[in-house]
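Protocol step 4 of 5: obtain the predicted structure for the target chain.
Materials: sequence only (see below). No template structures provided, no constraints applied. The aim of this step is simply to have a reference model before the mutagenesis design in step 5. Sequence pasted as it appears in the construct record:
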Amino acid sequence: MPLNREQKAAALDEVTKLFESSKVVVLTDYKGIKVEDVTALRRQVREAKGRFKVVKNTFSRKVFADAKYENFRKLLKGSAALAFGQGDAVELVKKISDFTKTNKQLTIKAGLLEGAVLSPADLEVLATLPPKPVLQAQLMGWLNQPMGSLLGTMNAQVQNFLYLLKGIEEKQAGGADSAPSA
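Step 4 output (structure tokens):
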């Protein structure tokens, strides 16, 4: 059933709002995928704080009308669906990438990350990254390492100095005990 003008405007507005609030957008081809599988994919995308939506290509072309999305817009052909990620971009791409490994009918065409168009190979690399908390912990470890080394070195120098003073004290105490008494 065709959409009337108000329904088209509402649908276009919804897709525009989804795009504007997203950190990452993944363009997929869902041709031949079963309804149950699409439902499972939607559930997984929701877990990653995203939304998987089948959008008419004419609406998508209007949303991505900016010249910087020209390469992305060229891929809006056939049975295209968009995954919009408001949460961690890596988590969303990982969920979709894992899904494509078990369901060969779904293919990743391209992606947008902070305005940059990403190829399927770029998205696969992004999917192999560890989750954000792990990356943050690694970064904190790397930042903490030089300070820990500096403190260890400084502590060793202070300890060496204290051992030297202790040795001098023992030598003087030992020299006083061994002095002949008159």
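Step 4 remarks: The two ends are 121 Å apart (CA to CA). The helical segments are 5-20, 35-47, 57-63, 70-73, 89-102, 120-127, 132-177.
Proceed to step 5.
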